[in-house]
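Much of our argument rests on the idea that a fold can be written as discrete symbols. This step matters because it turns folding into a mapping between discrete strings. The record that follows shows the chain in one-letter code together with its fold in token form.
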Amino acid sequence: MQLPTISVPTGAWNTRAGISPEEVLEAARKTEAAGIDGLFAGDHVTFYGTGNDALINLAAVATVTERVQLMTSVYLLALRHPTPVALQCAMLDQLAGGRLVLGVGIGGEDPNEWWACGIDPKTRARRTDEALHILRSLWTQEETTFEGKYFQLDKVRMQPKPFREEGIPISIGGRSDAALRRTARYGDAWTAIWVSARRMAEAREKIDEWAKEEGREDARIGLGLQVWYGLDDDRDEARRRLAKRMQGFYKIPFERFERYSPYGRPEEIAEFLVPYVEAGCDHFNLLAVQPNQDEVVEAALAVRAALEKLLK
């Protein structure tokens, strides 16, 4: 089996909280130098009071890196109008020399984030579908006309286009069948979170079936997994750190995540990941709960080495 590519989070700057932009950018340089395949940035406007604009984050990271893939994971597209987003992504993709992957999701754990942006959270799925259609058209067509429930465009032209003629790869995030259908219709990949390996294998079959119905039977749609994990020789300590961070971020008891969020030594994390590789996963976003970005990278490298041994 082929070793999946490995990405780690960029981290987000907040000078008043003690994290400077320079610190985040230096970490990006070190991550690339260490041989990690990619960097991903989370995206929120005000998730329980905290935000990070993934496109701004990655634009800065693009200027200090040359090789690593740059991915939003995941971008809350429905919080924005797709026309300016299409331009922002195109300019970022050109800045990065074609390294951008737009991961899109509809995360709704904090409904107030949507209301704060003037969006009814009940409309986020339909808005996302319409926006994805518009993005692809604006990136690849000379002129776009679209009549939807939430967005209307009349003979819109846009330059610059993305670095690549086919536009920017789109990865759809989520767990539901609706996310799989969205992947089959619009996506170049599916990035799962909190799913079993069996669900990933089922997703492979469903995406292929639904892509054929969409006339995309020749599309090569990848599978990815975003994983929170705790790394420590002491499993109890690894679990404690992981539970504290995830509960603090999502405001949900860790027990809801535990079966999908491994902890322990690198070999234990790798053992957890192998069934996903067997199910067709070709990309991991590894989100280690470590004290600093250097240790996040070291953790990912250790897990990758352990995974490589198991896959030989």
